Structure prediction request, 387 residues.
Amino acid sequence: MRTAAIVALLAAGIMAGAQLGKIAPLVPWYRSEAGFSLVSIGWLTALIAVFVAIAALPAGWAIQRFGTRQASILSFILLAAGGVALAFANTPAAVLLARLLEGIGYLALVIAVPALLSDMSPAGWRASVMAVWGGFVPIGFAVANYLAAAVIPAAGERGFLLIATLAFAVFAVPAIPLVLRTRDANGSHSAQSNGAYLKQSLGLPIVLLSLAFGAYVISSIGFFTFMPAFVQETGDRFVVSAGFIALMVPVGNLIAGVLLHGRDARAAAMLAGLGFVISVLFSVPAFASVNTAVATAAAIAIAIAGGIIASALFAAIPVFVPRGGSVSMAIGLVAQAGGIGTLLGPPLAGAIIERYSWWGLGAFLSVAALAGLVCVAPLVTERTQRA
Prediction:
């Protein structure tokens, strides 16, 4: 029962990532049909995370009090309702309102589900489970790309939006009874902690983790949002599809999960730093090199490094929270930084592409990764005390 519940939550999370990424395959359609600019499309992508950027930290506190199970179920309902509304939206205002409803559900999901996974997972599983969760956004982007390629030719763009939402529901609905029936790893049925305080939960290590995650999201979401448009515009610059490159992210998740087994949070910080270094070095060649082999290898390296970074950062969160602190609140701060990155990353990347072309995007992603490296470096020597 516990294993099934964890798997169902992870699958629902990945399909939630697909809801974030489903705009990327529709960039040409939104530009031609609705007259959206790349900057406008960037904002449309980012709107799903607007509530995360604004309210993730207080939402983490509220979820701690309300209960992660109830919040997870509510997030499933809201995200699905917004997705259905988006598929049938016929005006720009309706599109934005539907995306905002998805954003409310997404806010609750990205805090409640990982906190619930941390509560439900036995100690020996926790790092691996959180490592898998750390890749739910880029894996979701890959799923969205492949689903779009399979569905749009037969059912059109609106059919793709509807089927993407139904695919999320296929995994979210079975997760509900499993979540309600499975107790936490400590034997309780609720992981709320009445003694959790802000200052206990959000120390300097969690702040640095949050800043590093925000920098990672800016780099990662800029990369995956516009990569399909880059492939379409440049034709043969990559020797593989955008979807294939995105599917390299799970390779990074797997590498991180294996390397972090039995290791402490400082090892996770070192691994995240390595991922940032790879992103710094390969972002420009991925978009500027005219050599197809070099560009493809660089893009694959970025995707794998992204999986490593996200997994390592999420695996470190429960360990960097001190005793008496709240994992939900820590995840709330990390999610808020990620939400801000999601909100700012796509429109900034779109503006840079329009002004400097694709090599400018590579430079922008490299600078964002360098900022993440600066944030995560001090954590290598930080002592940890398990919550």
